[in-house]
Fold this sequence. Notes:
Order of helices and strands: EEHHEHEHEHEEEHHH
Number of domains: 1
Strand content: 15-25%
CATH class: Alpha Beta
Structural class: alpha/beta
Helix content: 25-40%
Shape: globular
Number of strands: 8
CATH topology: Aconitase, domain 4
Largest sheet: 4 strands, antiparallel
CATH superfamily: Aconitase, domain 4
Radius of gyration: 19 Å
Oligomer: single chain
Distance between the termini: 34 Å
Amino acid sequence: MSGISEIKGRLAPLDQANVDTDQIIPKQFLTGITRKGYGKHLFHDWRYLDTNESVLNPEFSLNKEEYQGANILLTRQNFGCGSSREHAPWSLGDYGFEAIIASSYADIFYSNCINNQILPVKLSEVDIDTMFQLLYDDAQIAVHIDLPNQSVLIGTSKFAFEIEAQHKHNLLKGLDAIGQTLELSDKIEIFEKKRASWL
């Protein structure tokens, strides 16, 4: 993974709280053995009017023309609650989302996003309300997320966000859990050499 420093693009709104992982990617689609191919099933029950995914729901925000090509999802509190399935960030990433902006996340989902190089930005509910209003006023408004400086610029409005140092490091370096371990490979090798042979 190459890592994240800045994300520039546009927002797609999902103006709803408590979106769980079964709504993000329903269980019947958890059949693949790779991380690819889940994007077409993202928000299946909301995006489509039929089970075959051939008829789009014109009322669902992600299907609206003005939000096509958006790479940042704007949503509400407790996003990603429910089960711990890692397929949820897989489907969001495969669809094309590079970042999510919400006021809070389920803990396991948040960690899964970090592990899969999707930036989960946390802002206050007041800031989220402001961003929704700016987006509804101008669906094409430009957004710039600066991870090193922990800021979100939307139009002329700027918001600061907090992120744990380890999570920030992993996103900047493109590290998942295995990558974090490999960063310590020299120390691990020294430790192994010092261990008694019978161990």
